[in-house]
């Protein structure tokens, strides 16, 4: 037993020594990026899938758990692959050109986005929409910082909020099929299901009566 413990400690020392080698830093950063992408993807998707599945999806418990596991795995895998691809291409470009320039980031992310998130499925679609909203905010702030757009005299956020809510509810009421399925489900629960009840049970306690399905 003691020999096994000594061997394990020696292995850990060797691993720690390897991790301190600067010449391997870029390659090791790519590997840790893969690890962090997998972990972060699972942390983000698992609770979201759990809530959305049990709130809006029908089916047996086994089917619901399978759906949650599949969504979590897909998000975790895709994010891990993307981070691995992005950081790998960043390191390669920096090595080839001898320095890091802004275009490297754009190019590496474009390639990673095409390869990993190019398939049009519910998970990828949700991630792209999440990023799109933040990109629009970021580009708006950057335009002001660079002087391309004058600094607003008043906070534009109330107007933005009004236009976004006005547009999304108009789409929901008259062009519902254009909205992402999970958003449709959420809005149906909020705005359609609240129009229907039979007694106190499905007015205050439940959303729908079990015998009305």
Portion in helices: over 70%
Work out the count of structural domains. 3
Structural class by SSE content: mainly alpha
Shape: flat
Q: How many strands in all?
A: 0
The average pLDDT value, as a whole number, equals 91
Order of helices and strands: HHHHHHHH
Contiguous low-pLDDT stretches (5 residues minimum) are none
The number of helical segments is 8
What is the first-to-last residue Cα distance? 63 Å
What does the main sheet amount to?
none
Strand content: under 5%
What assembly state would you assign to the polypeptide chains in this entry?
A: single chain
Query: Gyration radius, to the nearest Å?
Result: 24 Å
Protein name: PXMP4 protein
Pfam families: Tim17
GO cellular component, one term: peroxisomal membrane
Account of the 3D structure:
- The chain has 213 residues and is mainly α.
- It folds into three domains: 19-118, no CATH class; 123-150; 152-205, no CATH class.
- It is built from eight helices and no strands.
- The model has no long low-confidence stretch (mean pLDDT 91).
Secondary-structure map:
Layout: H1 2-19, H2 25-56, H3 61-97, H4 102-117, H5 122-145, H6 157-174, H7 181-192, H8 200-205
Brief descriptors of the model:
213 residues, mainly alpha, 3 domains, Pmp4, PXMP4 protein, 0% strand, 77% helix
Brief synopsis:
With 213 residues, this protein is mostly helical.
């Amino acid at each position: 037993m003691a020999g096994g413990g000594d061997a394990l400690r020696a292995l850990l020392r060797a691993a720690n020594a390897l991790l301190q080698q600067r010449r391997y830093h870029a390659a090791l950063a790519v590997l840790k990026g893969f690890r962090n992408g997998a972990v972060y993807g699972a942390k983000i998707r698992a609770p979201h899938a759990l809530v959305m599945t049990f709130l809006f999806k029908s089916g047996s418990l086994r089917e619901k758990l399978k759906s949650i596991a599949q969504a979590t795995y897909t998000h975790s895998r895709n994010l891990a692959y993307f981070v691995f691809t992005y950081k790998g291409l960043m390191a390669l470009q920096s090595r080839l050109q001898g320095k890091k320039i802004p275009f490297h980031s754009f190019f590496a992310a474009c390639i990673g986005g095409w390869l990993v998130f190019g398939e049009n499925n519910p998970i990828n679609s949700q991630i792209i929409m999440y990023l799109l909203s933040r990109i629009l905010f970021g580009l708006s702030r950057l335009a002001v910082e660079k002087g391309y757009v004058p600094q607003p005299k008043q906070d534009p956020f109330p107007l933005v909020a009004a236009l976004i809510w006005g547009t999304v509810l108009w789409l929901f009421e008259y062009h519902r099929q254009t909205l992402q399925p999970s958003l449709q489900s959420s809005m149906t629960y909020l705005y359609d299901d609240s129009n229907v009840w039979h007694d106190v049970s499905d007015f205050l306690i439940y959303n729908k009566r079990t015998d009305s399905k």
